[in-house]
């Protein structure tokens, strides 16, 4: 398959190349794409060198699949041009996620909604993906009513500039700021832009995307998204109220039987999920599973995943694998 990686020089793009190689995605021709600043740069994939091209050139090469992670503006402008040329686009930005004509997919949950007619497919937000991976099996069994989630998100979720800001602060070097405040030794209750309702765009992604992915609007989600000075991996404190009561052992069992989810919850041995140990892993880790003692049918848990892997690159590539395996491109 002829595969274009749009945003190949970025944080997500780099991990995409790594995951494509690891999973041995059937590539006959790789087309790395980035902004005009990077055209001509050499990237290595499976030991071979590839030259970065611009978007115009990439469209004219008519790839079978284009994996986009180059920001919302680039996706809005260029995904339709690729689609028109016959390419199927899987997009990591927020540009198409809530468009009712586009599918929003976490393969373990709703890959079956995909058809050959889907030419632009949206990959959910990183913090949404790890959340729904854990919520979906529990919702099937106990029916969720309301979820309250607070996130602890790493700087890699913002991109290369933010990682550089944290590194500069640690090294005591002045440099470009990705955030309005220092991030080292700090916590910013501010992920993405503020909206008119007082929430951030990231918080509204967490509130809306799960309903679309799970195909159910009967539950509600309230979110607070916080940026913390971890290099990689997002963590979430999640409180879920169900319609039906649950048994904690059964909750653990359900989660451990869910493909892509790992239960790490052994308090005697101080075992719980942490971002540094989720690094470079595709699984979503769940721990601190306990009953909320202040309210009936309510559960607390802690969910951690590598935002650049399952939160972005891996999920995108799983979608592409599903399309390839089911002859949908
Ligand atoms: N980081 C995450 O955890 C995460 C998770 C899910 C989704 N996403 C989404 O993925 C996208 C990329 O995120 P990132 O963290 O990888 O950002 P990043 O590190 O800043 O990389 C951005 C990439 O996009 C390219 N690009 C920027 N403007 C472009 C243009 N006008 N035309 C073509 N290419 C352009 C850049 O190329 P140059 O190197 O040439 O500038 C670079 O390859 C964003 O939409 C983000 O919301 C990120």
What features would you describe in this structure?
With 329 residues, the chain is an alpha/beta fold. It is built from ten helices and 14 strands. It has a six-stranded parallel beta sheet, sandwiched between helices. Helix 1 links the parallel strand 1 and strand 2. The site of NADP nicotinamide-adenine-dinucleotide phosphate has 28 residues, from helix 1, helix 3 and helix 10.
Short overview:
This protein has 329 residues and is of the alpha/beta class. It has ten helices and 14 strands. The termini are close together.
Key attributes of the depicted protein:
single chain; 329 residues; alpha/beta; 6-stranded mixed sheet; 14 strands; globular; binds NADP nicotinamide-adenine-dinucleotide phosphate
| Fraction of helical residues | 25-40%
Q: Strand fraction band?
A: 15-25%
Largest sheet: 6 strands, parallel
**Largest beta sheet: what is the strand line-up?**
2-1-5-6-8-7
Number of helices: 10
- Mean pLDDT comes to 98
- Gyration radius, to the nearest Å? 20 Å
Small-molecule binders here are: NADP nicotinamide-adenine-dinucleotide phosphate
Give the N-terminus to C-terminus distance in angstroms. 10 Å
Please mark out the parts with pLDDT under 50 across 5 or more consecutive residues, or reply none: none
Alpha-beta content class:
alpha/beta
What would the principal axes of the Cα set say about the shape?
Answer: globular
Q: Would you count the extended β strands for me?
A: 14
The H-and-E topology, N to C, reads as EHEEEHEHEEHEHEHHEEHEHEEH
């Amino acid at each position: 398959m002829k595969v274009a990686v749009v945003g190949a020089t970025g944080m997500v793009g780099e991990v995409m190349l790594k995951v494509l190689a690891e999973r041995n995605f059937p590539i006959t021709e790789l087309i790395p794409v980035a902004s005009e600043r990077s055209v001509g740069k050499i990237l290595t994939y499976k030991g071979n060198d590839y030259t970065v091209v611009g978007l115009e050139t990439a469209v004219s090469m008519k790839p079978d699949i284009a994996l986009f992670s180059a920001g919302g503006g680039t996706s809005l402008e260029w995904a339709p041009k690729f689609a028109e040329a016959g390419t199927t686009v899987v997009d990591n930005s927020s540009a198409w996620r809530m468009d009712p004509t586009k599918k929003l997919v976490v393969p373990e949950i709703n890959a079956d909604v995909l058809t050959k007619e889907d030419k632009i497919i949206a990959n959910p937000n990183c913090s949404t993906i790890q959340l729904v991976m854990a919520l979906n099996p529990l919702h099937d069994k106990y029916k969720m009513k309301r979820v309250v989630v607070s996130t602890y998100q790493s700087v890699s979720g913002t991109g290369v500039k933010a990682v550089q800001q944290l590194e500069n602060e640690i090294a005591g070097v002045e440099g470009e700021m990705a955030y309005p405040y220092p991030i080292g030794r700090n916590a910013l209750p501010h992920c993405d832009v503020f909206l008119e309702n007082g929430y951030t765009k990231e918080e509204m992604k967490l509130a809306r995307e799960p309903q679309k992915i799970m195909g159910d609007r009967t539950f509600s989600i309230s979110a607070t998204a916080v940026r913390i000075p971890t290099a990689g991996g997002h963590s979430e404190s999640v409180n879920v109220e169900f319609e039906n009561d649950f048994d904690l052992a059964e909750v653990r069992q359900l989660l451990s039987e869910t493909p892509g989810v790992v239960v790490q919850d052994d308090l005697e041995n101080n075992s719980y999920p942490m971002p540094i140990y989720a690094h470079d892993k595709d699984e979503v880790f769940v721990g601190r599973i306990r009953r909320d003692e202040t309210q009936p049918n309510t559960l607390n848990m802690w969910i951690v995943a590598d935002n650049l892997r399952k939160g972005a690159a891996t999920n995108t590539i799983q979608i592409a694998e599903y399309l390839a395996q089911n002859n949908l491109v």
